[in-house]
Automatic annotation (TrEMBL):
Subcellular location, record wording: Cell membrane
GO MF annotations, alphabetized: transmembrane transporter activity
Membrane-protein topology: Multi-pass membrane protein
The protein's name in its UniProt record: ABC3 transporter permease C-terminal domain-containing protein
Organism per entry: Treponema succinifaciens (strain ATCC 33096 / DSM 2489 / 6091)
Transmembrane regions: 21-44, 289-313, 334-363, 383-410
């Protein structure tokens, strides 16, 4: 017996009875998918900005009582032997800019951090920046600088303008150097507003530090995202090469004892991206929890709505069920036929829900949300860009279909136990 054909015919014949269930399924599935894809896109944008800010998927850092590599070449060479070929391993010099400022035509702007970067090695990372003007191309080996759109607006500068950078050097005296604005990026989040990027060699000379000085080494996988299992594997390999601190979930678990001088010899840490973003962990967890609750609530609405309404519809079709049994149809076949109708309804509802999700995505992409303070960390060029996931969509659809079919099955038990004689005597 072709249950699918019978189910489709039955649904088309009684479409007025099933139309409300179809819309419940389509809207519920669509909003569930949209919520999931939306958070995916926002967290992907956050992760991309964090990778640029921290220099990749991991950071390797340490020292005896401070974060410092006076000659980073040996460390880079050893790290290259630990990680797979193609991994970008790039020294960085993060300069605390509390006592540094930019000047342009009498305007002074303080900075939070100036990051010395090897732009040649990190070309892939900086190609992901959302540039308003210019880019990171051809900055390597020059006095070029990347600044945020907000800083550029406050200084009233554009690409090509020369600004003065005043800083206190390692030996303790004041130095001033000229920087040329090569790129302006759109980011007003904690990662961007008061953070600027310059060539690492230029910053070393301006700060009067050793030629190969660095205080961080970024490790970036261009073609993959490492898992927790990968992190544990790399930690074990690094422990064979260096005096390593334990793998931490919060970078301050390492920073605090190091900067307090609790170590008698140099010690190093392997910091995963999530440990660097622990300050944002509460926000990220809250977003995931809210999304999960929204999806769970919508699934419950779909399950309860369809199963309860379906029970009423089936009770109205009790005469039909009696006829099926009277012509010799087994109880299991009747169940399978009714469940097939519910299955076809759910499949078509989920398919239309996907279309509704894409419509919502198109609508949300039309609005620029950069006016919301500090929200740029979740935006791509000022816009929310949902990130679609085939596996995620299939998982949500499976949860909706399996839970609803199970609920419908329980709601049908009373109806299918009726005998043909009882069914035929019931008036609808």
């Amino acid at each position: 017996m072709n249950y699918v054909n019978l189910s489709v015919r039955s649904l088309l014949l009684r479409w007025r009875q099933y139309i409300s269930l179809f819309f419940v399924c389509a809207i519920g599935a669509g909003v569930s998918l949209f919520s999931f894809f939306l958070i995916n896109g926002m967290l992907y944008s956050l992760s991309t900005k964090a990778e640029i800010y921290y220099g990749g998927n991991y950071q390797f850092l340490g020292g005896r009582n401070n974060l410092e590599f006076y000659d980073c070449r040996e460390f880079v060479e050893k790290l290259s032997g630990v990680f797979p070929a193609g991994t970008i391993i790039s020294p960085r010099f993060d300069f605390d800019a509390d006592s540094a400022s930019f000047y342009y035509e009498g305007v002074e702007i303080r900075q939070r951090v100036i990051k010395g970067v090897d732009f040649e090695k990190e070309k892939i990372l900086f190609s992901k920046f959302n540039y308003v003007q210019g880019s990171a191309d051809k900055i390597a080996g020059t006095n070029g600088i990347l600044i945020s759109e907000k800083i550029a607006s406050m200084l009233e500068v554009s690409t090509g303008d020369s600004i003065t950078f005043m800083l206190r050097t390692g030996p303790g005296y004041i130095n001033t150097v000229q920087l040329v604005v090569k790129g302006i990026f759109k980011d007003s989040s904690v990662f961007g507003t008061y953070t600027s990027y310059v060539d690492i060699d230029f910053l070393r000379k301006a700060y009067c530090s050793p030629e190969f000085y660095a205080n961080r080494i970024g490790i970036f996988f261009p073609d993959s995202v490492p898992s927790t299992k990968d992190s544990l594997k790399y930690q074990a390999l690094l422990e064979k090469e260096f005096n390593m601190f334990k793998l931490v979930n919060d970078k301050y678990d390492f920073y605090d004892p190091l900067l307090a001088g609790q170590f008698s010899e140099p010690i190093y840490a392997f910091i995963v991206l999530d440990a660097n973003m622990e300050d944002l962990g509460v926000i990220i967890d809250a977003m995931k929890i809210i999304t999960s609750l929204v999806i769970a609530a919508l699934v419950i609405i779909i399950v309860v709505g369809i199963s309860s309404t379906y029970k009423v519809i089936v009770m109205k079709r009790i005469n039909e069920i009696g006829i099926y049994k009277a012509i010799g149809m087994e109880r299991g076949s009747v169940i399978l036929l009714l469940l097939s109708e519910a299955f076809v309804l759910l499949i078509s509802g989920c398919a239309c829900g996907l279309g509704f999700c894409l419509l919502l995505e198109f609508i949300v992409k039309q609005f620029n949300f950069s006016f919301i303070p500090a929200f740029d960390m979740f935006l791509t060029n000022g816009y929310i860009v949902p990130m679609n996931s085939f596996c995620g969509a299939m998982l949500i659809f499976m949860v909706i279909i399996i839970t609803t079919i199970t609920a419908v099955l329980f709601s049908l038990r009373a109806a299918i136990r009726i005998t043909p004689v009882q069914a035929l005597t019931v008036t609808e």
